[in-house]
Amino acid sequence: MDLVPWRPFRGELSSMRREMDELWNRFFGETPFFRTFPEEWSPSVDISETKDELLIKAELPGLDAKDVDVSISGDVLTIIGEKKREEEEKDEHHYRAERYYGSFQRTFRLPASVQGDKIEAIFEKGILKITLPKVEEAKKKQITIKVR
Q: Higher pLDDT residue, 132 or 42?
């Protein structure tokens, strides 16, 4: 028989600590209230592929088309932009700020060759939609299997 030290409040204290952590997270969220270093801002992107094209949709709320630059070099597509900070009022006091400002860059290596001269970029309601038509060689082709 082993001797085990008796800790009368161990279960109650760890339960209370867990409840306090949950309360803190509900009030302030999962992220720390004060950030030591500002985080980079990076837009969310959806990438899809059809038989004939690649489609990239980037979520860019608060930006205008003039704030964004799209370029392609070989098989690498780059989206660069800047979200400018609004003018602050002198009487305004911030208790918590979660909106990010500043420049961003997203780079994607394309899985197929595209027709660079036929790429189309449309900016509407804060969404940048880039359509990249594939070259004929990159399109998926069905190969018939012959039986001998």
A: 132
